[in-house]
Design goal:
Mean pLDDT: 82
Distance between the termini: 44 Å
Radius of gyration: 17 Å
Structural class: mainly alpha
Largest sheet: none
Strand content: under 5%
Shape: globular
Helix content: 40-55%
């Protein structure tokens, strides 16, 4: 297999900045943890609608990748 034909599909540049600050994301997480209810499935759908569709802080691809990684984490209640 020729390695020169393999290319990255996405490139991250050093000058790209997110559309939110750390403080805004912290406030969002605290508000969601305090007032959000309905279990994980409800919160995941609410976060998708709010962060991806309305605020556009996170791209759909990044959101899905993050959700996939979160599902791979071990369950801490088993310890």
């Amino acid at each position: 297999m020729d390695d020169s034909k393999i290319t990255a599909t996405t490139a991250i540049t050093s000058d790209s900045k997110p559309g939110y600050s750390l403080w805004q994301m912290t406030q969002y997480a605290l508000r969601l943890g305090t007032f959000g209810f309905g279990g994980p499935a409800a919160l995941v759908s609410f976060m998708y609608r709010d962060l991806v569709e309305q605020r556009k802080w996170i791209s759909e691809t990044d959101y899905k990748e993050g959700l996939t990684l979160a599902q791979l984490m071990p369950d801490s209640t088993l310890w």
